[in-house]
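Handout, page 2. Input:
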Amino acid sequence: MARKGRSDSKLDQLEPEVRQDLIDKFLHENLGLTAAREWLADTHEVSIAISGLHSWFHRVVWPLKLKMREQYATMANALVSEARGKEVNWTEALEEKVAQRAYEMLETGANEKQALAYAKTAFAEEKAAHDQKMDKAKLEQSQEKLEQDERRLKLLEQKAAAADMAAEQMQKLKDGGDMLPEEERAAILLKVDEILNIKK
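Output:
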């Protein structure tokens, strides 16, 4: 259970406006204890030990700070959900990163529109990076297919040339007919085997 503030606490006895101003500085300006002590002394002529200020901070300000952080976290998650959209390629890690940044922006004084604009920009950049990556992958695939087609075409051209050469040799056999010497016939057939890469 939270400790009840002492009735003689200097900070509890501050004027409401000054007390609220001090709380706001802790919450929204991340004022440190030393700086707060100096601010009280210089602006309001209130002298207090760091230990007393520390105790009051944890009793009064810290619960408010925790509640504010919860609100900012909820707000940041809502902003991320709104900014993400349906077309963005996102991961939990990216969502957590954007939500954390949106939370930090809210905590340091940015308004909801600014945090939302940041979240939208972050997801848009992620989508652009993803699209660029996909386009590059498609281009690489297209290039690979083109190279495969070129290799296939070259192979077909080689086979077509071999077929023409084989047909030319077979025409010699046909033209020679029965008058063609056996040795020359065997040489032509051997040549055809070599052209067509036929292994015996």
